[in-house]
Every structure is written in structure tokens, then in C-alpha cells.
Write a structure and sequence with these properties.
single chain; globular; about 450 residues; 15 helices; mainly alpha
């Protein structure tokens, strides 16, 4: 269902919009969480370490695709907020062409360079084979993942957060069923888990296509929507690229920083990898409410930016920031006292040393959730405004700080040094993004006031 986010009480709208996003993000995590639990419980710690060793690489690749499509969808949301429905359809077709072309190119590069990448990541020899096959299968299915993420981004840009949720719930259940089938019945091992992931993503994309055709007349593309005069429409393509590629780069920088930490972690052996893998999955679930509220804010800001309603944007960002502060406190409390119990869900009760290592990471990182929560708010607000430079600079700073902290501290205090790298980077990025947002919104408001004064002078 399409929703106009330029009307109604901002906080209520964002809360209602974010709840389906939260549920959807939880099921999105099930794609990997199901893999981790099933692999860890059925194939052992080495198999779990194999998946965990390359998971940050998978997230890096997905970050790039999601960032690119979210960037393209900002233009779609702004066109919808301005009530330019022809522009909405043209934005969808342009986004499809650009995202598919870039994803295919990215797939080829990743597939051929994977042996070198895994070597740079310090993947241990005893888990290399499973790790290699897992990530190569996932890369082969990137175009499928791209279709789903593109459709989901467009649908959310139009104010509908429910449709992607329905598709994810069904596909997540399918993923669990297929993973169990391929591992337990067909004995495909770790590669079977990757196959289940790709097939379930394909099903979610098909569900989105079917639902759009049935319930979204505004997205029923016509033949003329696909006809572009590139001499005339290259500016429209550049408009998407100027937002999409910096956002992809921003997410790539973030993913690279996680990849560096994983590479340092890999040097400590399979047990540390397994602990770090379980802890990161739990942290991803713990931060989902904050992430979901940030994504809802991006759609809210994009539509209101298209409508030129900057006071509404400021109000919405302030309320969203307060909500995320409350969420960060609650999640930190849960991680402090019950983090170890969640770790055991992944790896069982026979590996208490690994459980304690994973819980130590959660104990350290959760102290800094306040800063992480503000990153989700101000980064998404800036993206909704179409501002890409500041988020990219913040991500670059986060990369440098995280990488330096991981390497520097790991040398001095061992793998515990890796635990502090992320939190230190969160503090840096949150300060940059908050400063950038308030500076940017003031500039837009000033320009709007000048434009209004000039209009009044002309009509006087």
C-alpha cells in the first residue's frame, strides 16, 4: 500500500512505517542466521568458522548493492513527494538499468578475484575450501539479490514497508527449509547453505514482482518508460548516479572496515572466528530496531524534501533521534545481561570458552550503542536529503579509525583489541554525521527562505 509521508503526525507515521521494516529486517537476518545456526549445529565449529570467515565479505558486497539501490530510490521518493508520477516510473526504469549493469560487472570482478581476496583475508587453510565455495555461490546469485533489493527500495520509497516484509517472511521460512534439506538430506555441506540462500532470495524477488503487478498501478511500467534518448536523458541518469554511487561507496567503505577487522580476527584461528561470528550476528539483531527506524526516516525525509517541507523534516529527525537513544539503552542492557544466552543458541552449550569470548565482545560494544544509534539517524536523514558527501566522509573516517584501532590494539592486547575497534569508529562517525546534518538542513532552510522572499517580491 502506497503511503504519502508528507501528511500526518511525523512520529506516528515513522513508527508505523518502521515496525514492518523491523520485522522485515529480522527475517532478512534469518537468511544468514539460519545458515549460522544450522551449519554450527550440524556441521561443527570449522564449518561455522568457514561461513563466518567470509560473511563480512558477503556483507560488503550486499552493502554495495543495497547502498546503490537505496540511493537510486531516493530520487524515486523525491519524485513521488513532488507528485511527479511519470518521473517515478522513469526513475524505476533508470534504476533498473543502472543497477543491473553495475551488479553484473561487480559479479564478474568478484568471481575472478576471489582467491586473491581470501588470501588477503587470512582465511585459515583448514576452512579455506568451504569458505571459497560458499562465497562463490553467493556471488553467482548477486543479480538475484539485486532484483529483490531494488524492488524493495522502490516500494519503500513510495511509503510501503509491508510488501517487502511479506516477501521476506515467506522467503526466510523457505531458506531454513532448503538449508536443512541441502545439508541434512542431500549432504551438500556448507555449499548447500549458500544454495539455499540464493534460491530463497530468488523467490523473494519473484514475490515482489507479482505483488507489484497486482497492487501497484503506479509502478506498471509502459513501453515508453523504457525508451530513453540518452542525449536528453543523461542528466537524469547522472542524477541517479550522483546519489546511488556515493551511497554504494559509503556502504562499501563501511563493509571494508568490517572486512579488515575480520581479517585481523581470522589470524587468531577458528575458535576466535566462531566466537566473533556468533557475536556479530547477535549484535546485528540487537541493532535492527535502530536500523529500521533510520530507514523509515530516510523515506520520510526524501518525500518531505520533494514536497519542500523542511520544518517537518527537522521535527521528524529530532523525534527519531530520541527514539533511537531509548532503543540503544534497552539493547545495551539486554546484551550486558543476556548476551551469553543468545550466543549459546548459535553454538550450543559445549563450547563455553567460545561463549565467553563472544559475550565479552557484546559487553564491550553495547556500551557504545548510543553513538551507533545516532549514526543510523543522521546518515539516513542526509541520504533522504540527497546529500552523499558527508556520509561518505564519515564512512571513510570510520574505516580509517576502525582499521587502525583493530591492527594497533590487536598487536598489544590480542583479539580483545578487535572488540574496541568498532565502538571507537562509531564515536567518530556519529560526531561527523550529526555536525553534517545540522549544517546541511540549515543551508536548505536558508535557500528556501531566500526563494520565498524573492517570490513575494515578484508578486508584490
Amino acid at each position: 500500500m502506497i503511503n504519502d509521508l508528507t501528511k500526518g503526525a511525523p512520529l506516528k507515521i515513522m513508527l508505523l512505517f518502521s515496525i514492518p521494516l523491523l520485522i522485515g529486517n529480522i527475517f532478512q537476518q534469518f537468511y544468514n542466521i539460519a545458515d549460522i545456526i544450522i551449519v554450527g549445529r550440524t556441521l561443527g565449529m570449522d564449518a561455522l568458522a568457514a561461513v563466518g570467515a567470509v560473511s563480512p565479505l558477503f556483507f560488503l558486497i550486499m552493502f554495495i548493492i543495497v547502498g546503490m539501490n537505496n540511493g537510486f530510490a531516493v530520487i524515486t521518493g523525491q519524485r513521488f513527494g513532488a507528485k511527479d508520477f511519470e518521473g517515478v516510473r522513469r526513475s524505476v526504469t533508470m534504476s533498473t538499468i543502472l543497477s543491473c549493469a553495475l551488479t553484473l560487472a561487480f559479479t564478474v570482478v568478484c568471481a575472478f578475484s576471489m582467491p586473491v581476496i581470501l588470501k588477503l583475508m587470512n582465511v585459515p587453510a583448514e576452512i579455506y575450501k568451504d569458505a571459497f565455495y560458499y562465497i562463490q555461490i553467493v556471488i553467482a546469485g548477486l543479480i538475484i539479490a539485486n532484483f529483490y533489493n531494488l524492488l524493495a527500495s522502490v516500494i519503500r520509497a513510495l511509503g510501503d514497508s509491508m510488501t517487502p516484509l511479506y516477501c521476506l517472511i515467506i522467503a526466510s521460512v523457505l531458506n531454513i527449509f532448503l538449508a536443512l534439506l541441502f545439508i541434512l538430506e542431500f549432504h551438500l555441506g556448507v555449499p548447500g547453505s549458500a544454495c539455499a540462500l540464493v534460491l530463497s532470495q530468488a523467490f523473494s524477488a519473484l514475490l515482489c514482482i507479482w505483488y507489484v503487478k497486482k497492487h501497484f498501478p503506479i509502478l506498471h511500467l509502459k513501453k515508453q518508460d523504457w525508451i530513453f534518448d540518452w542525449k536528453e536523458d543523461y542528466k537524469f541518469a547522472l542524477e541517479h548516479i550522483k546519489v546511488g554511487l556515493p551511497m554504494a561507496a559509503q556502504f562499501a567503505i563501511l563493509g571494508t572496515s568490517i572486512l579488515i577487522i575480520q581479517s585481523v580476527c581470522n589470524s587468531f584461528g577458528p575458535d576466535i572466528i566462531a566466537a566473533f561470528t556468533a557475536a556479530l550476528r547477535i549484535e546485528q539483531i540487537a541493532t535492527l530496531p535502530m536500523i529500521s527506524f533510520g530507514v523509515a526516516l530516510a523515506s520520510f525525509v526524501a518525500q518531505n524534501f520533494g514536497a519542500g517541507n523542511f520544518s517537518r523534516i527537522r521535527y521528524g529527525v529530532k523525534r527519531a533521534s530520541l527514539i533511537n537513544v531509548g532503543l540503544s539503552i534497552v539493547m545495551a542492557f539486554i546484551m550486558h545481561f543476556w548476551g551469553g544466552h543468545f550466543v549459546r543458541i548459535f553454538i550450543g552449550y559445549k563450547n563455553e570458552d567460545i561463549v565467553q569470548i563472544a559475550h565479552s565482545y557484546l559487553f564491550v560494544s553495547s556500551i557504545f550503542y548510543f553513538f551507533l544509534a545516532q549514526i543510523f539517524i543522521y546518515r539516513n536523514a542526509l541520504q533522504g536529503l540527497g546529500s552523499t558527501i558527508i556520509p561518505m566522509l564519515a564512512s571513510a573516517g570510520e574505516l580509517l579509525v576502525r582499521a587502525f584501532a583493530a591492527v594497533f590494539l590487536a598487536v598489544r592486547i590480542g583479539y580483545y583489541g578487535v572488540f574496541y575497534a568498532g565502538p571507537i569508529a562509531w564515536v567518530t562517525a556519529s560526531l561527523v554525521l550529526a555536525t553534517g546534518y545540522y549544517s546541511t538542513i540549515k543551508q536548505f532552510i536558508l535557500k528556501a527562505q531566500i526563494k520565498l522572499r524573492n517570490t513575494r517580491k515578484k508578486t508584490a
